[in-house]
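Session log. Operator J.P. requested a structure for one protein chain; no other inputs attached. Running the standard single-chain path with token output.
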Amino acid sequence: MVGAGAAGLMAAIQAARVGPARGGRTRIVVLDSARRVGAKILVAGGGRCNVTHHEVDERAFCGSTRPAIRRVLRRFPVSETIRFFADLGVALKREETGKLFPVSDSARTVLEALLRAAREAGVELRHPWKVEAIDRTDGGGFSLSSPQGRIVARRVILASGGKSLPKSGSDGHGYELARRLGHTTTARILPALVPLNLASGCFVRRLSGLATPVSVEVRSGTGRRLVAMAGPLLCTHFGLSGPVVLDISRYLLNARLEDPESHLVVTWIPEFDPPSERTLGAWLRSRLPARLAEALLEEAGVEPSARLDGLPRAGRRRLTEVLTAWRAPVTGDLGFERAEVTAGGVPLAEVVLQTLESRRAPGLHLCGEILDVDGRIGGFNFQWAWASGFVAGAAAGADDVAPERGLR
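Structure written below.
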């Protein structure tokens, strides 16, 4: 097993539980390059770990085809995730957003439960143990090489993650391991669920900490709407964040690779309909946070004391544009260092969906973020980790040939 993140730990637990149940003698060894495993679990959800969402289906994901994603998700649905963690002593609570968090509000509760379950199942965890290469052996197994030594195994589960939060150990090296064994990766591997930078003089950067519900769209250079979403937006000292921005970021970055003029449009209010008897300042402050209302009026060049009937046609047009179709001056993103997940990876077409076993290298299974699947914010990516880890681990653990040769 390569990788001790969410998918890797789930896979290890399942493999260790399935093997003995079927009369096998399988030894499960998990290798991870990090000094402290589970870093991404610990930082998820602001340190609370958004374990899953109350309703998850393939429509919440991008990357590989939805039918393929659905087949994996259905093997381990949300109800099984809730039951799995309950059995580990981790009760989950549902919040208004549909997100499920541990009742403890602590991500450490989740990580410690997973590590405890792995130990109790007989899983051996070695770290820091960076796998530098995986090669096929003459006997049909695999040789995993590291500065710490070499391991020979009959089956390998690759759960090394993508490129997001590289300090946690998911630095993209897993893609090279997969390619060396005959796999391909998508032409584009991009940050997803990532905050966006705005031009230095943009008024939004002066509103750091302010949050408000909005609608956002990715439009092509010709103005064609490509993707639209709605949800909370957070203004920051560098630009834009918040759930709706994180969700749409992968679409903007992807669109800009094909059309550099693709852009993000923000709708602060759905329509421009101020009553003639009120000042525009008073009307807008009744619809939006005061600081934002004032900044938008300033951006449009309109005095807060102005009324609709006294506004020139050009001023009305400019204010309408700023309020209902503001083009955000996005200059870039915060990169993989701040991205919550990776868009792209090994296509699901290269694995057998029932087992997530490689079609290119039999005996190799892949799960988690290394595959070309990325979901919305809100626990969806964790659910993919639990489901894909379950499928890969259960299938690998069913192999009753002990991979103990060469362990040292």
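Operator note: Residues 195-333 form one domain.
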